[in-house]
Amino acid sequence: MDYADPAQLPALLADPQVLAVFGFQAGDGAPASDDPRYLQVGLQPEGEARLEVWRGAGTVRSGREADGLAWASDGALMFGALQIAESRHGGILEAGAHAYARLLSALPQQGYPHLLRIWNYLDAITEGEGDDERYRQFCIGRARGIGTIDVGTLPAATAIGRLDGVRVLQVYWLAARVPGTPLENPRQVSAWRYPRQYGPQSPSFARGMLAAPGSALPLLLSGTASVVGHATLHGEDTLRQLEETFANLDALVGTARARLPALPAHFGAGSRLKVYVRDAAEIPAIRQALARHLPPEVPYIVLHAEVCRRDLRVEIDGVHG
Ligand code: 3EB
What we know:
It is a single chain. By secondary structure, the chain is α+β, with helices and mostly antiparallel strands. It has helices at about 10-15, 85-90, 90-110, 135-145, 240-260, 285-295, and strands spanning about 1-5, 20-25, 40, 45, 50-55, 60-65, 70-75, 75-85, 115-125, 155-160, 170-175, 180-185, 210, 220-225, 225-230, 230, 270-275, 300-305, 315-320. A seven-stranded mixed β-sheet has the order 4-18-17-19-14-13-12, with helices on one face. A six-stranded mixed β-sheet has the order 6-7-8-11-9-10. A four-stranded mixed β-sheet has the order 1-5-2-3. α4 links the parallel β9 (about 115-125) and β10 (about 155-160). α3 (about 90-110) packs parallel to α4. The chain starts with a strand and ends with a strand. About 45% of the residues are buried.
């Protein structure tokens, strides 16, 4: 995976090896294309807008189904994307249920039955009180759409709130012909075991995913925040939350290295990170802390977005290899 300038979009989509391009830019300034390999996520970048580019091995086939489901595959991996208008389904719960039922039926049909990584972007993620909060409702819908599942096969994931006011659930995913190895974090309670206080339905995701041996994929890092055990730490201190987030990411990389010792111990030239920041006013301080913490060869993008607990001020996802 790599980041690229938005002006590169036409050249990237002309490349038959490109599997997927995600643009992070809300509103009319974003580059447009109806190529099924391109999805514009309505999140505002702080600083330069970037594209996230995933390349396949060999020639990529792609298409769009009648209901809008977009897909692209290279024989080993398949990307897919769905954009579900909440009003068409009766709310975020139902939109989540529909999205997951639909995508999980598409995977085996297309020959890529194993979900490795999924990203979920929804507007106003922490709106609503108590169990009515939209994230908690989304978690119920997601679990309903998944149905019965072995929690040991859940994908790595991100669930982040957009600020664009558009009530469309955006979901995209990476699936494979062969299963990967889901990873948990020794510093964190597995999300599917979160206690009731965080909602009636625990979140359905793994902390990370290692693709099968032989795959060119890097370690896939789920959205990671200042959660230790199941509790949010440092709710009033963004920079300490950032430190705790890196401690969590280090622990996850350690878990991955126990299975794949060739994986670098620290973030470096093979890492790519996305940093989601709740309060735009805190972005300069976060950028300074990132510059202190990360070696200069690590590319990252910073996005103004809402994390799914109100007391989480920053979250990081990405890849490492
Ligand atoms: C956490 O650790 C932070 O619901 O899919 C991170 C990654 C989080 C994925 C999801 C939520 C999700 O609980 C939140």
